[in-house]
Amino acid sequence: MTSLCQRALDGSGLDAAELERLLLVAREAAEAGGRELRRHFGRLEQVKEKGLAGNLVTEADLAAEAAVLAVLAAATPTVAVLAEESGQLAGQGDLLWCVDPLDGTTNYAHGYPFFGTSVGLSWQGLPLLGALEVPVLEEHYWAAPGRGAWCNGRQLRVSDCGALADSLLVTGFSYDRVHRLDNNYAEFAWFTHRSHGVRRAGAAAVDLAFVAAGRVDGYWERGLSPWDLVAGVVLVEEAGGQVCAYDGGRLDLADGRVIACTPALRQPLIEGLALCRPLSGASFGAPELDATTP
């Protein structure tokens, strides 16, 4: 099965030299964002909400995004950018930078040390390459098709976990969870009772990197955006893992639902998600949600 990132490379027509150049740009941009996150961590002056309740933005998000965009503008001025805080910036061609300057803003705002800067490049909606900086852990991840997935000079490989009962999983909950019955609560409970446990760390790109590194064996989540996914998906694929939609079909970045795991866990995760139905709102103290459409 051809990986998404290899399909992107084949379709893009990029030669080896240009792929390498773009990968170095992604790495430099992620590092620039990470430096800003280090500089502001524990020193925030203001935290605001944007859109849904609990969806936070800080001066660190803005500073990190500015640093990333400066690198991208200097090195690839004609390539379009989709950034969490700035939205989409126009460009030419089918390449698109997908930037999350602060993946894990809620963690960051509370001083919880699990966050990072994610910079991914896609081609026609397919993840192509990416880099991720995790400042507190002093970890720098990067991956590109045919070049493997790496962290601080160490090549990554997904775990050899072959059974759901032996797995450690990770997931997350979207900001819209307080407004929807389709909120991942039932899925969390279902897999918690059929695995060694399910972690909820609060930073999707870092979760994906941890799958690639073999620290967790599988990951699923809904409500994600392309900037959450592109870099991490390439990391997982290049580390020998598999990535797909909830139903096992090809991942659609716009859909926002992803499974990423060891090859052996792909089918158990697909089957488990298909079995889950939303919990009633009354069961978790939100009876008003029972009258709404999931």
Automatic annotation (TrEMBL):
Q: What is its EC number?
A: 3.1.3.25
Pfam families on file: Inositol_P
For this protein, what reaction is catalysed?
Answer: a myo-inositol phosphate + H2O = myo-inositol + phosphate
Per UniProt, the keywords (alphabetical) are: Hydrolase, Magnesium, Metal-binding
Tell me the domain of life. Answer: Bacteria
Named from the GO MF annotations, one term is: hydrolase activity
Q: Under what name is this protein listed?
A: Inositol-1-monophosphatase
Q: Which PANTHER family match?
A: INOSITOL MONOPHOSPHATASE, INOSITOL-1-MONOPHOSPHATASE-RELATED
Question: Which cofactors, if any, are listed as required?
Answer: Mg(2+)
Query: Quick check: keyword DNA repair in the entry?
Result: no
Q: Which CDD domains match?
A: IMPase (cd01639)
